[in-house]
Amino acid sequence: MQRWQRFHTFKQRGEWVELEFMAQAALHGYHVLKPCGDSLQYDVALERAGGLIRVQVKSSTARKGYGYLCRLRHGGSGEQRYDPDKVDLFAIYVIPAKAWYLIPSAAVLRPKPKMHIRFYPHGLPRRGRHDEDHDYEPYREAWGLLSKSRTELNTRHH
Q1: Are 76 and 94 in contact (CB under 8 A)?
Q2: Which of 59, 80, 121, 127 is the most exposed place for a label (fewest CB within 10 A)?
Q3: Smallest Cα–Cα separation from 17: which of 61, 54, 66, 52?
Q4: What's the total number of domains in the chain?
Q5: Which pLDDT does position 10 carry in this prediction?
Q6: Domain that holds residue 139
């Protein structure tokens, strides 16, 4: 049994992943802030030059074919879409691969919000096939994005 499989609920596992993200962000030199409660659309804020970057932390262990699936929904039913005006960045941890993906919200919420995204930390399924909708590898371990402003993160191309 893997250590992360010992959590009894997804909420407990989510809290652990948030702590892992906060530790990694701090190790990369960022000042981490944790809002009280869980009623906001983001889990963690990072202080940057007097401004804040709002980060929604998610994780995945859901193997789907060659990759891992992550839902971009929230709320009790898990059907509410994230608002790109209320979250600046997604930090998604693919637990079995021990891989962080740091993705600006504009890349997955604009123009039309994606319901879920797939990650291929072990390589895209078919060689020679490049599918931009599924290629999030440029965001893998992209800790430098945390130094961007909200405006820079809100621009579609990075």
Answers
A1: no
A2: 127
A3: 61
A4: 1
A5: 83
A6: 3-154
Distances (CA, A) of 20 to 24, 32, 154: 6, 12, 25
| Average of per-residue pLDDT across 130-141 | 76
Non-local (6+) Cβ contacts of 6 within 8 A are none
- Strand, coil or helix: what is 2? coil
**Amino acid occupying residue 67:** G
Structure tokens at 69: 């699936």
Nearest Cα residue to 61 out of 5, 19, 18: 5
Among candidates 121, 151, 150, 126, which has minimal Cα distance to 61?
121
d(CA 93, CA 98): 7
Residue 68: which CATH number?
3.40.1350.10
Which tokens go with 33? Answer: 């802030």
Residue 103, pLDDT > 60, answer yes
Q: Which amino acid is at 44?
A: V
Q: What is the pTM of this model?
A: 0.89
Rounded-to-5 percentages of helix, strand, coil across the chain: 25, 30, 45
What is the rounded distance in angstroms from the CA atom of residue 68 to the CA atom of residue 37? 29
- Amino acid identity of residue 31, one-letter, is H
**Amino acid identity, position 25:** A
